[in-house]
Amino acid sequence: MAWLFLFVAGLLEIGWAVGLKYTEGFSKLVPSVLTLLSMGGSMALLGLALRDLPLGTAYAVWTGIGTVGTAMFGIMVLGEPAGVLRLVCITMITCGILGLKLAH
């Protein structure tokens, strides 16, 4: 169950990272509320996952999911560059996340 909590926490991290772009400095109510709810949910689920997972592993996986997901959102939705080096780096982060999961 801890890994499921961690995975959903990572998805919510993507949500709040992306949400920050749409809050316009927390001047828009709905995006701001959704972003804050995503932040709270992400932290709460990370906290639940930490009951059973090592801190270093959980934190690295959580931030990795957020990093990869946010970068992919930027590429696919916002039209950010998808150069070969950038995609290789995203792939390496993903491999690191999988490696941490397998090493646990």
UniProtKB/TrEMBL annotation:
This is Guanidinium exporter. GO terms for molecular function: transmembrane transporter activity. It comes from the Bacteria. It is found in: Cell membrane. Pfam families: Multi_Drug_Res. The chain crosses the membrane at residues 29-50, 57-78, 84-103. GO terms for biological process: xenobiotic detoxification by transmembrane export across the plasma membrane. Belongs to the drug/metabolite transporter (DMT) superfamily. Small multidrug resistance (SMR) (TC 2.A.7.1) family. Gdx/SugE subfamily. It comes from Pseudoduganella aquatica. The keyword Cell membrane applies.
